[in-house]
Amino acid sequence: MLSNPSLALPLEKGGKVAEHYVGRFAPSPTGPLHFGSLITAVASYCDARAHHGKWLVRIEDTDIPRIYPGSEEHILRSMDAFGFDPDAEIIFQKDRLDIYQSVIEQLHAQGWVYACQCTRKMLGSNHIYQGTCRNLNLPLEHQAIRVKVNDQMICFTDQLQGPHCSNLQDDLGDFVLKRRDGIINYQLAVVVDDYLQGMTHVVRGADLLDNTERQIWLGKILGYPELQYMHLPLAMNDQGQKLSKQNMAQALDLSQAPQLLQQALRALHQLEVELDSPAIMLQQAAAQWSVQHIPQGTALQGIYL
Ligand code: GLU
User: Fold this and answer.
1) Is the CB of 204 within 6 Å of ligand 1?
2) Are 163 and 153 in contact (CB under 8 A)?
3) Does any domain span residue 4?
4) Hey, which of 57, 60, 187, 191 would you mutate to test ligand 1's pocket, going by the most ligand atoms within 8 Å of its Cβ?
5) 60 C-beta closer than 6 A to ligand 1
6) pLDDT per position as a tens digit, 165-201
7) Residue 9 confidence (pLDDT) above 90
């Protein structure tokens, strides 16, 4: 357990004690929210509410150079416009860098992490890190920090995608938790915050499926409880690419919130919800939420936005 006082959890509305289900929506502000983000937000929200659980929002903004101006604000405005009501204050990862650093120090004291001076050029096209710096005992300052992995199969059963496994040593090698420029990697921040916020369930896009074994591994060596995962099929554009900020997916038009909410629920094959105020629509969607109806696979067919 960590003893740093800054690890305190944000205040919960009404000071309620943790329940058996805590879920979250954790967007990165690398662009405004798009229809794919809305599907994730709706599914994570409805699944949490259908379990009488809590639902939190966390802004994943550790990669400061990739923050797109105005997108944090668009995320916050979207939460209001779509009637989402998180059960705790929204947290921003860039305010929590000291927490991630203290976890790196904890892992260092336990011999799990080491400094790596390999440049991209030195690593070349080989995407599996060979452990070149593992035993060099370099000082941690101003270097990338890698975590050791073992020759071990990590498996989990995704609620929608079924069984998924990876041997991290064969598939990836020791991976980076902090970059040489000081940026905390998503893999570390997500695991630490899911733990500190008491998360039990992760509902997110299937583009993150292959990250899960790394996160399970980190959770395991940190002694955190295991989470349940549900990776949603992704909305595609008309060129068959997943909607993303990189391929300029259209920002959610907040003046069309009820219509977009209805489309997101249709994309997830949920029972029809009539147009109303978004908060009422979400309430109804959660009451009739059915995971069994969500389309199979990692892509939503015929949903072109
Ligand atoms: N921040 C990630 C994204 O916007 C999602 C992380 C997660 O849900 O684990 O793609």
Assistant:
1) yes
2) no
3) no
4) 60
5) yes
6) 999 999 999 999 999 999 999 999 999 999 999 999 9
7) no
